[in-house]
Amino acid sequence: MSAVENSMQHTAITRRPSRSQQQDAKAWSAFTGCTYTAALRQMMSPMAQGILGSRMSARHLIATLKNHELIGIENKHSVAPLHSGNGVRQNDYAETWRFNGKTDYVELAMVAEFLRMFDTVSELNDPDSGVHSYSLKHTAENFLAPHLDYVSNGQIIWVAAALGIPLVDHDDHSGPNVYVGIDVLEHRYVRMMVARMDDSLRPKAHHYRPAGYEFLRTGLHRAAAGELIAEKWIEPEADTAPKPFHEWMVVRASDDTVVGDISADYCAGVSDSDHGMAAHPEDFLEIFRHVGASPGIYDSAYEAVRDYYLSHKDTSPVRTVRAARSMFDDDYAATYVCPCGYGYVEEHDDERMIINCHRCATQWYFSPSNHVDSWGLLPAGVTAS
Prior knowledge:
Strand content: 5-15%
Order of helices and strands: HHHHHEHHEEHHHHHHEEEHEE
Structural class: mainly alpha
Number of domains: 3
Helix content: 40-55%
Shape: elongated
Number of helices: 14
Distance between the termini: 69 Å
């Protein structure tokens, strides 16, 4: 017995159903062949209450499956009718939609919450701008576990269509899968977070985490316990803070140079959520310090930073982070990590500043425009603004 079936066994109709729930139950009963009471129990299940949005309309689901322009099974213009849970164009009579009369609607409602979590693309002009429905199926199964044991390819396609998410068929109109217009990088992040694999391989940065990710995961557990969630999810404002260095690196990633190579590696790490976005040069250097980059890799990173400063004269000098207290600390000096991470920058009480690192001492100098208590470093050959 699935977790959903188990929860449905304990779902009693203890409150007055809304008119919408009653109308949906009547329509779902007629569509699937289950009793009105069984349908109403599904409409009133806490698992189907709507966590990231309003409760999914059963009548809208039915209308979508019948009339949608791409997957509608009664739409004579549909090129990819969704006859079964296997996917589009799977119209073998033995494989047509089968409803158990107990959890079908609740399962679709849970899939709807999963898909609502992602940003959608405005237009799905080519498959590369969307996510393969079969890949989404597996991500949904891992995300919705242990509440839902199985998600079909057809459920993903059906619910995506009902939510108005763009769908694109294969160019040759073959096979059971379609491309779904959700954010590719957000899906990649979620897929890696919920995949059954070693934790060391999971994302280490969370800039592509869908905004509703944590609220939905918590909400599913609360709903599974029978709770009706009173607070509504409010989508946070998007991070619009400028990231000039990151944007510059994205442009340089196509260059056939040392800077282009390190920029491409950086961009790949951002896409895979291995590290965050570097808004400023010091953020970029911090990424390499954390991963313990080899001297050769660091030298390439330094060249990228130096190149950036040469073309962005108004960029503030690099200020590194305070180092953990070490043998180099004393009562008269504060130590900071040096840009390469293998030495220190010393700030002395007598206003002396020292770069205690052979590599950084030749690659960096203290900006003369900054007082000692607000010191900053500039790459060699870069003139202070």
